[in-house]
Each structure stands twice: as structure tokens, then as C-alpha cells.
């Protein structure tokens, strides 16, 4: 019976150590994302945002429709453009141009930083969006959820 207790204690210790290692690794990745300097992906010449990488932690209205990164642009007017920018007032504004904004948004869990870019094209009344995690491979759908929350917010504000 004593050997079983010892084995149980060792297994419990190993499981707790693995969990602690995982949590520390998450905290270090979050800190890395907070300290990164990220440039805007706005291309002024062709009014577009950069494509997503091959990682599933990005969504963009400029991605090909067949891509898992694709999220459709939405129609909006100048008033809604102001509402879209105000939606991210809890994020850190990195760049603010007449029809383009770039935010750094921290997640509530661990403080991972994601980059959110909005590009308003007044000539077509379209809002293009891009949201990407700075570190890691998957974001568990956080960037898509963020953009969908923005779209829902705009629809609710204007119904």
C-alpha cells in the first residue's frame, strides 16, 4: 500500500509540474506579444491590408473567399465608421489615419496582444478588417470572434 501512495504522490507532482510549466509558458508568450513592435500592414497605393500568414490566428476581408482567413467586408457610412473606431476604445491605438486605424488589443486571459486593423473605403462605403495574433499558432477563434462582435455591434447600433 505504501508504494502506491508514493507513486500517486509522484504522479500528482508531475501533473502539477506540467500544468505549472504550461502556465508559465503561456505567460511568457503573452509577455512576448506585449513587447513586440508591429508595423501597420496598410498599403496606401492599393487601399488594402496585408494577407494573413498560413497560421489560423488571423482573419481578413482581403483574404480569398475560399480561405479559412476570410471574413467579408461590410457596408457602412461615415457615422458607422466613427462607431467602429469607438468599439475598440479599450485597445491601444497605434495608428490613426483618415480612413485607417490600427489597434493593439490585449486578451482578458494572460494579456496576449492581437493587432486589429480597420480600413474604411468611403468611395464604396466598405469597411475592411484584419485581426491577427502576434504570437502562437492558433487563437482558438478569438480574432474571428472579435470581428464578429464588431459587426454585431454596428448592426445593433444602427437598427
Summarize the structure.
The chain has 159 residues and is α+β, with helices and mostly antiparallel strands. The chain contains three helices and six strands; from the N terminus they run H-E-E-H-E-E-E-E-H.
Structure in words:
- The chain starts with a helix and ends with a helix.
- Strands 1, 2, 3, 4, 5 and 6 form a 6-stranded antiparallel β-sheet that branches.
- The protein is elongated.
- It has helices at 2-35, 78-87, 142-157; strands spanning 58-60, 74-75, 92-97, 100-106, 113-121, 126-133.
- The chain has one domain: TATA-Binding Protein (2-Layer Sandwich).
- A hairpin with a 6-residue loop joins strand 4 and strand 5.
- The protein contains 3 helices and 6 strands.
- With 159 residues, the protein is of the alpha+beta class.
Structural key phrases:
159 residues, alpha+beta, TATA-Binding Protein, six-stranded antiparallel β-sheet, 6 strands, 38% helix, elongated
SSE order and pairing:
Elements: H1 2-35, E1 58-60, E2 74-75, H2 78-87, E3 92-97, E4 100-106, E5 113-121, E6 126-133, H3 142-157
Antiparallel strand pairs: 1-6, 2-6, 3-4, 4-5, 5-6
CATH class: Alpha Beta
The pLDDT mean sits at: 87
What does the overall shape look like? elongated
Head-to-tail CA distance between termini: 68 Å
CATH topology: TATA-Binding Protein
The overall number of domains is 1
Q: Could you say what the CATH architecture is?
A: 2-Layer Sandwich
Residues in helix, %: 25-40%
SSE pattern: HEEHEEEEH
- Approximate strand percentage: 15-25%
Major beta-sheet overview: 6 strands, antiparallel
Uncertain parts: none
* Structural Rg: 20 Å
Which structural class matches the secondary elements?
A: alpha+beta
Amino acid at each position: 500500500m505504501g508504494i502506491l501512495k508514493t507513486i500517486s504522490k509522484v504522479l500528482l507532482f508531475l501533473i502539477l509540474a506540467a500544468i505549472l510549466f504550461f502556465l508559465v509558458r503561456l505567460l511568457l508568450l503573452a509577455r512576448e506579444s506585449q513587447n513586440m513592435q508591429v508595423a501597420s500592414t496598410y498599403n496606401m497605393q492599393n487601399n488594402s491590408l496585408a494577407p494573413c500568414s498560413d497560421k489560423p490566428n488571423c482573419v481578413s476581408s482581403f483574404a480569398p473567399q475560399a480561405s479559412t482567413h476570410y471574413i467579408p467586408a461590410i457596408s457602412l457610412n461615415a457615422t458607422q465608421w466613427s462607431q467602429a473606431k469607438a468599439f475598440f476604445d479599450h485597445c491601444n491605438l497605434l495608428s490613426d489615419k483618415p480612413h485607417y486605424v490600427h489597434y493593439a488589443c490585449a486578451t482578458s486571459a494572460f494579456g496576449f496582444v492581437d493587432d486589429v486593423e480597420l480600413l474604411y473605403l468611403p468611395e464604396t462605403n466598405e469597411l475592411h478588417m484584419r485581426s491577427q495574433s502576434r504570437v502562437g499558432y492558433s487563437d482558438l477563434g478569438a480574432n474571428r470572434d472579435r470581428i464578429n462582435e464588431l459587426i454585431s455591434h454596428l448592426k445593433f447600433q444602427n437598427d
